[in-house]
Amino acid sequence: QKEVEQNSGPLSVPEGAIASLNCTYSDRGSQSFFWYRQYSGKSPELIMFIYSNGDKEDGRFTAQLNKASQYVSLLIRDSQPSDSATYLCAVNPMGGYGNKLVFGAGTILRVKS
Amino acid sequence: DGGITQSPKYLFRKEGQNVTLSCEQNLNHDAMYWYRQDPGQGLRLIYYSQIVNDFQKGDIAEGYSVSREKKESFPLTVTSAQKNPTAFYLCASIGVPKNIQYFGAGTRLSVL
Question: Does A103 touch chain B (CB under 8 A)?
């Protein structure tokens, strides 16, 4: 069983719609959760991180964490063609400084204009 | 500008050759990481180092070696024992207090 699972997609949404990306993880003791965006041929860039249950909003992005159900999601409001990319979910299963992140394989998002 | 610098951007390896990928950071971060990414795949951890002169194997360390003689530098050597080295290699470092990993621009390695 993979430790961090994401639907590979592609997820296609029209411009202006809400894109919803989901991620489940297997280690119930996981402490921190990250969403990275990766454009084709480029390195990942951090867009959101969340540590506590509930929602965290930053501009058009909202991260949602539910530790009891072991999932974390990313909502992108007013999706733009420039949001088309692969979104990687990453989990820090041990907490603490400098420990490993476990990455999902990523979800491809396509925003159609 | 502060950041993580990887070089070269593209690298070609001949059969039986060892090659070294450079990773330098001026962020004063203690922990550094090397990942490998294959097409359509997530990131897989090769090696990581939390302090100078110390490093640990990740999930796919076979055929790779690292050193951490300076805080700023964490070079990765892809040895001839790595039979399928073609991939995108990413270096990352992590800072306090938010424990967030930041990535370099990557090195794309191909076999001639």
Answer: yes
